[in-house]
């Protein structure tokens, strides 16, 4: 038996190809949307992987440092380092801001790390694609290449300028913003230091306070002003465990004795994926649902229209003895073929356009397979209306009168 | 007359019930022998289409008896369970317009029926080519219907009607869209095919050009048939 659907498609291939192209663009958008979600999840995992930490020690009762703000003393890392099972501990700050370069600025997550002898500490970029790590205590930066900076570029963060000495890759925040690493002290200043006007205002207020500005004791006022000008806070302490240590046991110990909140890797994944990007994923889920419904409606309309165009032929086919299942099969195969054409166009479109999206779009083969099955299922469902209509065609319509 | 063709006795068809009931066919008697071509003539609303649809097993008559190729197919109710197979295997259709499947080439338009009946593609196409040769359109076997002239399309439609060697062919105004020359050509083909394949052919027509070619004519008026002899004029 010849394939009636195949012959019809070959006969009116232009209609199918152009319709499939239109449907394919819609499917392409759907695949990219799924890729955006996957990219967000991957960004979150990359953030955790690249931090090199097993535990995140943050301000008590917070979900920091990525999902909520967290501020703890930069002295605490020493006591954390002394805890059993802890191999390394490092202070780190995170601040998402606009980093300027000349007249342009880039949204980036500025990460404060301890330079020099803390080489390889948690929080450091695990590898560089060019240049070197930060070795000086001030005014050097390592940037993710997605920021668009090059080696030797001078960038401005708040009031200070930094020289880009190294470039890294896939070091991004959970929002996909590229990271810029700078020395911890500079990062603390950038994050916690007030601007000059505010400092002057604070100094005037302190000087007006007789408790701090006692006659004959100017050192007190100087000491208070100095304490206000220096920041001793960090956002988190990243902990790397000694081999064989149990993450939950160490975390419990730190929670108990240091009265801090400690997140394990699993908890951080839950925070990042389950909480931080939960709203975005729901948003994307809604878009995917709407796009699926729109795709189904389009396929249903197209198949219905194509079937309506063939009402007389269907009546003739039924009159001459064609089985209902042959006619239903023809319509179903056409819907599936349309879906297959649309999926091929959509997949190609998504693959070629994904790199141009500002945020990371991760197209997984597993998603493509799921998407293909979903497209076929949607097309099959969408063809039911046309099939129902075709099966109701009276063969007597082929006979005039 | 032989009973191997088609015999209709007391066929009735009523649409609706009660006060709104309409008797489209009140009493139809017809008999067409194998190899015979008869005309069915009647004004609009006389019941021609209802009769054709009843014969074609696409509507249910109300009462009567129909015998096809020696087999009783209707006797106050269908005697065959698969009307689709009955239409496919026992009845050929030729319409006013050819209604060829536009996405199949000529040979597959004709070969489709045996394929539907379960014959292999190769065998079906071979049979179709034989028939197309007999109808002198074999040279257009690979063409699409849209590439054929009106006469060629009608010949292909006739081939499709004949391909399963049905004992009866129902032709609904097969020459209406054709000029005299082509109409006569189609009639000649139908007569030749009727003789060659011993098929009983009923042609519903208003076409004055072809009416004189019938040897027997059935008139239908207000759902009642009557038979008269035709001129049986030779087809030039």
UniProtKB/TrEMBL annotation, chain B:
One Pfam family it belongs to: ABC_tran
GO terms of molecular function: ATP binding; ATP hydrolysis activity; transmembrane transporter activity
One Gene Ontology term, aspect cellular component: plasma membrane
Keywords: ATP-binding, Nucleotide-binding, Transport
Gene3D superfamilies the UniProt entry points to: P-loop containing nucleotide triphosphate hydrolases
Domain (ABC transporter): residue spans on this chain: 6-235
SUPFAM superfamilies assigned: P-loop containing nucleoside triphosphate hydrolases (SSF52540)
Record carries keyword Cytoplasm: no
Protein name, entry field: Putative ABC transport system ATP-binding protein
Record organism: Stakelama sediminis
């Amino acid at each position: 038996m010849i394939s009636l659907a195949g012959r019809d498609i070959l006969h009116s291939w232009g209609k199918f190809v152009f319709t499939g192209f239109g449907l394919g663009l819609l499917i392409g958008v759907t695949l990219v949307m799924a890729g955006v979600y996957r990219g967000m999840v991957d960004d979150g995992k990359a953030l955790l992987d690249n931090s090199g930490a097993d535990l995140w020690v943050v301000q008590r009762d917070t979900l920091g440092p990525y999902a909520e703000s967290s501020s703890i003393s930069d002295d605490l890392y020493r006591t954390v380092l002394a805890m059993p099972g802890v191999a390394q501990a490092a202070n780190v700050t995170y601040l998402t801001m606009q980093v300027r370069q000349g007249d342009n600025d880039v949204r980036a997550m500025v990460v404060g790390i301890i330079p020099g002898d803390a080489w390889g500490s948690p929080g450091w970029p695990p590898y560089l694609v060019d240049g070197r790590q930060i070795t000086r205590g001030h005014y050097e930066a390592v940037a993710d290449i997605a920021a668009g900076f090059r080696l030797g570029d001078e960038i401005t963060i708040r009031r200070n300028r930094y020289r880009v000495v190294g470039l890294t890759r896939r070091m991004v925040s959970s929002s996909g913003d590229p990271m810029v690493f700078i020395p911890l002290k500079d990062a603390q200043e950038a994050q916690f230091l007030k601007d000059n006007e505010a400092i002057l205002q604070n100094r005037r207020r302190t000087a007006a306070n007789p408790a701090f500005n006692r006659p004959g004791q100017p050192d007190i006022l100087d000491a208070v002003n100095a304490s206000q000008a220096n920041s001793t806070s960090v956002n988190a302490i990243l902990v790397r465990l000694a081999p064989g240590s149990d993450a939950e046991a160490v975390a419990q110990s730190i929670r108990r004795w240091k009265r801090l909140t400690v997140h394990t890797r699993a908890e951080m994944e839950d925070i990042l994926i389950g909480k931080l990007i939960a709203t975005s994923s729901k948003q994307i889920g809604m878009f995917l649902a709407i796009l699926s419904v729109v795709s189904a409606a389009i396929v249903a309309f197209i198949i219905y229209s194509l079937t309506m165009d063939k009402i007389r032929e269907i009546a003739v086919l039924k009159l001459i003895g064609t089985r209902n299942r042959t006619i239903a099969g023809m319509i179903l195969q056409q819907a599936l073929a349309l879906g297959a054409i649309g999926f091929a166009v959509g997949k190609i479109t998504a693959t070629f356009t994904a790199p141009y999206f500002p945020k990371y779009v991760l197209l997984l083969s597993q998603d493509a397979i799921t998407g293909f099955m979903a497209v076929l299922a949607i097309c099959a469902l969408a063809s039911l209306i046309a099939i129902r209509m075709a099966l109701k065609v009276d063969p007597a319509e082929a006979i005039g009168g | 007359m032989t009973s191997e063709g088609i015999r209709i006795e007391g066929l009735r068809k009523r649409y609706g019930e009660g006060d709104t009931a309409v008797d489209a066919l009140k009493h139809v008697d017809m008999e067409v022998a194998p190899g015979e071509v008869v005309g069915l003539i009647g004004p609009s609303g006389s019941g021609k289409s209802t009769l054709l649809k009843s014969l074609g097993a696409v509507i249910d008559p109300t009462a009567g008896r129909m015998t096809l190729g020696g087999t009783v197919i209707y006797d106050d109710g269908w005697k065959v369970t698969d009307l689709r197979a009955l239409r496919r295997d026992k009845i050929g259709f030729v319409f006013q317009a050819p209604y060829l499947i536009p996405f199949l080439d000529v040979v597959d338009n004709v070969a489709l029926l045996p394929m539907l009946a379960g014959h292999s593609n190769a065998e079906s196409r071979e049979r179709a080519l034989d028939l197309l040769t007999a109808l002198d359109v074999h040279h257009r076997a690979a063409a699409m219907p849209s590439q054929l002239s009106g006469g060629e399309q009608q010949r292909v439609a006739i081939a499709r009607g004949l391909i399963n060697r049905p004992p009866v062919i129902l032709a609904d105004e097969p020459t209406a869209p054709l000029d005299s020359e082509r109409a006569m050509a189609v009639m000649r083909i139908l007569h030749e095919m009727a003789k060659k394949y011993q098929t009983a052919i009923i042609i519903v027509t208003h076409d004055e050009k072809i009416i004189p070619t019938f040897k027997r004519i059935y008139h239908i008026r207000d759902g009642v048939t009557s038979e008269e002899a035709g001129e049986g004029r030779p087809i030039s």
